[in-house]
Amino acid sequence: MRLFFILITINFCWIFSFGQSANNKQIQVKVLTESRSILHDATVTLLTKDSSVIKTSFTDVSGTVVFDQLEADNYIIQIRLLGFKDYNSALIDLVSKK
Asked: Is the pTM for the entire model greater than 0.70?
């Protein structure tokens, strides 16, 4: 089985409305082969820390998928594509710092 090379980017945006703030957190995932070739149509699933499915999407032609408007929580990314070994990320911490 071939392996994935994964680039995960976490973005934090703050939106202000009526004097209160709400966090809009985003996880961007780019799926590549070990030789850095783009892998499109990979299934990318966003899971809670207890493995409940939150969202599932497919990578686009650039090998990218974005999960946005996320709550401050801990997440796991799961990636699957025929011919490749399944991938589960380490826990991704989006919990707000106070």
From this structure: yes
Per-residue pLDDT tens listing for the chain (98 residues): 666 666 665 544 333 333 333 567 888 888 888 788 888 999 999 999 999 999 999 999 998 898 988 888 999 999 999 988 888 998 988 886 54
- Residue 26 structure tokens: 């985003």
Main-chain phi, psi angles of 89, to 5 degrees: -75, 165
Cα 98 from Cα 58, distance rounded (Å): 34
Q: Which candidate, 52, 59, 53, places its Cα nearest to that of 80?
A: 59
- Are 31 and 2 a contacting pair, CB within 8 Å? no
How far, in Å, CA of 7 to CA of 1, rounded?
Answer: 20
* Residue appearing with tokens 């799961």: 78
